[in-house]
Amino acid sequence: MTMLKRIFSPALLTLALFGGAAQAALVPPQGYYEGIEKLKTGEGNFRCEPAPKPYTGALQFRSKYEGSDKARATLNVASEKAFRKSTEDITTLEKGVSKMVGQYMRDGRPAQLDCTLAWLGSWARAGALLSTDYNHTGKSMRKWALGSMSGSWLRLKFSNSQPLAAHQAEAELIEKWFARLAEQTVRDWSDLPLEKINNHSYWAAWSVMATAVATDRRDLFDWAVKEYKVGANQIDDQGFLPNEVKRKQRALAYHNYALPPLAMIASFAQANNVDLRSENNFALQRLGEGVLAGARDPSHFKERAGVKQDLTDLKVDSKYSWLEPWCALYHCVGDTLQRKQHMQPFNSFRLGGDMTRVYDPSAESKK
């Protein structure tokens, strides 16, 4: 008893009882710590284009499926054109930041980093994308943009080269804006009825997860994990997502589209000692295997959805970017590994850029 008293002083006892309150800082998967490949001086061929105009208006946009039936699977060409036009500045920001961060991580030219910070800083100062006047397409654009930006930002934030060390004030401004966007995204996508929770909710959770790690916000991390579990528990024994089956001819495409955010969330959770791989009897693994099988032979999806599948998206290699985090989680072998290697490198601006460089950096040297 004397020994126990000596070891468990009041301070140590308090720590033992409430140690959970002093949690470790949130971190990304190991690949985000990569340094800059080669430090190059001068601007080279890089030219910093003017930042797109910060979008501060109402997030009221037309849907590309406007006029479709409840399956929301028939493209409205005129509506899509209007949607692309009205969201052009947002998409330019997403793609531009992802591209510049990728260039900077390869070349290390100061102008590339300065331009990235200038673009993000101008939108942060304007309080862009924070409108509470929105429709479904509008709140979807908000979470997509946040996932793109935070996903790219993580590569700067955690790089062993410490590119943000000399830009702390600007980084703080940008991260505060990210946090505000994430808080609004949580409000946008919380407490939905189960029949309304589909790939959009998973993408929202990914954007919040990326921001949680970028800003070290455990509350945001916990929300993303909670939403992941809802998604994983929607996956049935055959690997189908009922709310994506409803998309009729695009059911397989939307199952594939649901995988990137779910795989990224599980990967980030694992990096922070939260293992989601076995949730709902390894549901994420089941979903991935089902989509890969469907890409080879879509008959099961045709049977389940009741209509022949549109395989257009399934022929685009970048649509399988989820294979990088998924294979890191489940250790792909055989045909799946070969398919991944054949399609590499994977680049997805909505996930923050070059996923192969993050998850399988040795792949480039094998090509």
Summarize the structure.
By secondary structure, this protein is mainly α. It has a single domain (25-366), classed as Chondroitin AC/alginate lyase (Glycosyltransferase), CATH 1.50.10.
In CATH, the homologous superfamily goes by the name Chondroitin AC/alginate lyase
Q: Which fold name fills CATH's third level, the topology?
A: Glycosyltransferase
Main pleated sheet = 2 strands, antiparallel
Task: Give the tally of structural domains.
Answer: 1
Instruction: Give a count of the beta strands, DSSP E runs of length 2 or more.
Output: 2
Give the CATH class: Mainly Alpha
Give the second-level CATH assignment, the architecture. Alpha/alpha barrel
Rg from alpha-carbon coordinates: 21 Å
Structural class: mainly alpha
Helix and strand element order: HHHHHHHHHHHHHHHEEHH
Q: In terms of per-residue confidence, which ranges show pLDDT below 50 for 5 or more consecutive residues?
A: 1-20
**Considering DSSP H and I runs of 4 or more, what fraction of the residues is helical?**
55-70%
